[in-house]
Amino acid sequence: MAQAQNYIISASVDQIDAAFENFGQQYPSLDKPFNPTAPSEAISLSPEVVRCSSLIVAACGHLSANVNVPAMSIYATAGGFHVSAALGAALEGNTVEILRDHPSGLSIYDISAQNGMDPIHLGRILRLLATHHIFIEITPNVFKNNRLSSMMDTLKTVNEIQSDPENKHVGTPGMSALIEHTCDEIMKGASFLTEFLTDPVMGSSGAQEHSPMGVAFKYNKPSWEWYENPGNEYRVKRFMAAMEGSTKFDPPNAILQGFDWGSLPSKALVVDVGGGMGHTTKKICEAYPDLKYVVQDRPMVIEQGRSKFWRNEFSEALSDGSVVLQAHDFLTEQLILHANVFLCRMILHDYGRSMAKVILQHLRDAASQDTKLLIVDTIVPYACLDESQMEAGRGIPGMEFPQPPAPLLANLGKANAIPYIADFQMLVGFNGEERTIGTFTELLYESGWKITRVFTIPGSIHKQILAVVA
Ligand SMILES: C[S@@+](CC[C@H](N)C(=O)[O-])C[C@H]1O[C@@H](n2cnc3c(N)ncnc32)[C@H](O)[C@@H]1O
């Protein structure tokens, strides 16, 4: 029974051990806090180690589905939201920061004295999480951080957070913000998924004013606007920090890999559509200063970008005109005609098919025959073999990929859960969608574009999809 998975696990463990031995290092310990600058963390992210660790996670997931009592597997899955709720509560109670300076652990009473939560409830929360390898219960009712819990450290002191709670996540690495955001408004929205899907209007409207999160919080407008409501000051700041945190799923210069920005002629115009404050444009601009850039976003975001980002970090780019910040609604006619590149990074996934088509058609109407469209989004793999993409020359260049060994799922199962979770974040929050290559191909075709190549960026959950006018 399960010999194949067993073999994959042990062969992959041996390969990881050998890779670490080569560097005279050991795999980072789960029992110790996460140290982003440790050489062992860098080795753990090297392509060969990531390939082996993905096989281990996929095979362990497959093996446990095989051997666990079916009722236990299903009930543990159904009750998974309790783990999310516990994680949200632990983070909102600043538990990671409270435990940071206590490597030997703190009792639930000492933690409770700092965050005001009932110690018994706190113990139950942390025990559920420790059972999922987040925190460690070292002796009864005494907990400490481990590699997973400490990844969510804001790096602020408890005093700093408590004296300015609204800004808890501002200026932090963002992982804590991303997880709190997921365990708060996204989880609350997800609990109304069925009501949303079975609603005769909302279920198939594709409109951004309809979303499971809107059902949960009783609003009928795009979630972007809801975030700006009075009372949502903490959530909106956390959401912005979470967006920054989500960049951790990409290597720092991912946007400079893949598409060859150097192939553009000098002074070529790059329009970063829905570019946020302009973080991505700044990276490209620093590497390719002879190109021209326009960052477009909603007025409030553009204003924040001007005052809080560019003026502090790269004011010369605004003053010499290399970068222009422009308030623009991408659901309306595109103002800039014949740009060399329209960049849409993490934009289309916020929208369902009908609205994504509107955005793409506006870009198509403004494009020339030479305009390139570069979409940066996750491509959700099918959970089965996609034979149309398997061999070079048959599918879209860049989409062919090696198949994992049998009997693992073609998408690597649990090792590759993030694209599916991201897809549901989009559905719940924005009535949006992370797409399969089949859906991208159809959507682009229906909007007058044709995919010419896909770039895979090592270590990134996002792909770059390059399209031209069809
Ligand atoms: C997920 S963020 C991506 C930001 C940026 N492209 C990046 O990769 O970091 C989506 C962005 O789309 C912007 N946005 C949403 N609706 C918009 C609209 N109708 N017109 C222009 N920008 C919009 C949001 O303000 C936000 O900055």
Structural class: alpha/beta
* Main sheet overview: 7 strands, mixed
Number of helices: 22
- Please name the CATH topology of the largest domain: Rossmann fold
Helix content: 40-55%
Mean pLDDT: 95
Main sheet: strand order: 6-5-4-7-8-10-9
Percentage beta strand: 5-15%
Number of individual domains: 4
How many DSSP-defined strands?
Answer: 10
Alpha-carbon distance between the termini?
Answer: 51 Å
Taking all Cα atoms into account, the compactness measure Rg is 23 Å
Shape: globular
Domain O-methyltransferase C-terminal: 236-383
Protein name: O-methyltransferase
Organism: Collybia nuda
Pfam family, one: Methyltransf_2
Walk me through this protein's architecture.
The structure is a single chain. This protein has helices at residues 3-22, 39-44, 47-67, 70-78, 80-92, 95-100, 108-115, 119-131, 147-150, 158-163, 175-190, 193-198, 212-217, 223-227, 233-246, 279-287, 299-313, 315-319, 353-366, 387-390, 418-430, 437-446; strands at residues 106-107, 136-139, 142-144, 269-273, 292-297, 323-327, 341-345, 372-377, 449-456, 463-469. With 470 residues, the chain is an alpha/beta fold. The radius of gyration is 23 Å and the shape is globular. It folds into four domains: 3-73, no CATH class; 79-163, Winged helix-like DNA-binding domain superfamily/Winged helix DNA-binding domain (Arc Repressor Mutant, subunit A, Orthogonal Bundle); 167-248, no CATH class; 250-469, Vaccinia Virus protein VP39 (Rossmann fold), CATH 3.40.50.150. A hairpin with a 2-residue loop joins strand 2 (136-139) and strand 3. Helix 5 (80-92) packs across helix 8 (119-131) and helix 7 crosses helix 8. The chain starts with a helix and ends with a strand. The structure holds S-adenosylmethionine. Residues 224, 243, 274-276, 279-280, 297-298, 301, 329-331, 345-347, 350 line the site of S-adenosylmethionine. Residues 224, 243, 274-276, 279-280, 297-298, 301, 329-331, 345-347, 350 line the site of S-adenosylmethionine (SAM).
